[in-house]
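User:
Can I borrow your eye for a moment on a structure tokenisation matter? Would you put together a sequence-and-structure record for a protein of your own picking? Please set it down just below, with no commentary around it:
AI:
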Amino acid sequence: MNKTIILSMMLWGMALSSVVSAKEYMIVGARPDKLFVIDIKARKVEKTFTIPDSTAPQNIAISPDGKIAYAVTNHLRSIVGIELDGGEVVFRADLDYKDDERTWNYGIDLSPDGSEIYSYDIPTKIHLDRYESLEPRLSVFKTDAGLDAAPIREFPLPRRIHLLMTAKSGALYAMGWDFYKIDVQTGKVEVAYPMRNWKKENLSQPDALAFWPSWDNNDIFSTPITYVRTDMAEYNFERYRTGLLSLDLDTEKFDLIDFQSAPEVLFSSVFHPDRKTAYAAYNTLIKIDLENPKTLQRIDLDHTYYQTDISADGSEVYVGGTACDIAIYSSKDLSRLGEVILPGCADMGATVIRIINK
């Protein structure tokens, strides 16, 4: 057996042994102002917190120690940090921090040491007779800045970014029309992986829409991506392709795996921790072979789900968003194992799933 494969299996086994003794929690938000801490193995909501001045929490980032959840809320105009043991609000950054601005956030993440928050801001200046679209920016906040946090650094960023992710090295990656790598100290931006302008032979410009972070238990960002084989006839349905685009947050290596035609999964996917299979959901849940790329299995879901995620031991696949339930399936055969219904059937909408082990 290849030495690299053996080493990879050993490392995954060591990582797995370190988390199986920990308790696994899922963190989700729901309209209009709730943050839930779910004991996912017990299939129950353990804690419910109310987010002050909240409307439909969306993106969530978790501190590296698993103690604080930072939720984007207030019409995407504020980041609120909530301590997960008792629900105390310990951080707040209101992004309309300049005169006559209204600012939306479309991506957050934290530095590897948890000392800084990175926010992708889309500001608009309010005039008496018009709105003026301003240059998007990266705002950097200190996590210990309290309830009236102000940015310590600002840098211009390209438009159309919708997800931020921090590599183990501290480099910040941003997904938009292209994949960008950002130096959070200097603001330098470079194209790390071209998408809108890729030069892949016989492939059209790709399409992807990824708002959902699913790398908590595998250190791999992945998303379904669709494109067309331009060297195939228009009447040949096989020309419409689906792939998985991934970024390893440890090695910072990108990969694209073409696994099927007939696009059916749109928004999110997740790698198994052993990186041999992946899962993606929308109206169906599919299991994907990454070693010999193809769809291994698919099942119909009872409604649309936005995010796909997985347990630390790789045994359970979770799908959530759009409604008030998290459905749980076996990663081995996609058999249904259970569900968690949020109290009062609180609507998750486009909020994200985050998983911690502590």
Observations:
- The helical segments are 3-20.
- The two ends are 34 Å apart (CA to CA).
